[in-house]
Design a protein that fits this description.
This protein is α/β, with parallel strands linked by helices and 139 residues long. It has helices spanning 32-39, 79-87, 93-103, 127-135; strands at 23-27, 42-45, 60-61, 70-76, 106-113.
Length: 139
């Protein structure tokens, strides 16, 4: 998520715990309720002014989550984050830093709410397919 010109070393997860839902996923907006019911993730958004239609999930702002760790995280992305996932378009420094904080709260899985990730950076594990595999739901 950081532009290569910034000179950061690549990171590698040292987590060797395996669960039934590990990795990075895309969750379609219409699947959010089922995802939250199944995995009870920490729901994160950029700010209280963003993703207002998900206020009932009591999302926490990215910056407020700094220092926390949760098994699973659901991210309500900004337009810039969606563009990064779809195209690899680099995030600006402050946006990359905030997104990094959000992603690194998760110990086992991160789900990003998007209608379509296209051929982007996140595996195309359509959440409907993934939820069906992990819950038996036909959602």
């Amino acid at each position: 998520m950081f532009d290569a010109s910034w000179g950061f070393d690549a990171t590698e997860s040292l987590n060797d715990t395996v669960t039934d839902h590990d990795g990075v996923f895309v969750c379609k907006p219409e699947d959010v309720e089922a995802y939250v019911a199944r995995y009870a993730p920490l729901v994160l958004r950029h700010s209280s002014a963003s993703a207002k239609h998900f206020d009932h999930l009591e999302p926490m702002n990215f910056g407020d989550s700094k220092g926390l760790g949760r098994k699973r995280v659901l991210i309500l992305p900004t337009g810039a984050i969606e563009a990064f996932i779809r195209t690899g378009k680099a995030l600006t420094e402050p946006k990359a830093a905030r997104f990094y904080v959000a992603v690194t709260r998760a110990q086992q899985s991160v789900a990003i709410v998007m209608s379509d990730a296209g051929g982007g950076l996140v595996p195309g594990l359509g959440p409907r397919r993934r939820l069906r595999q992990t819950t038996g739901s036909q959602a």
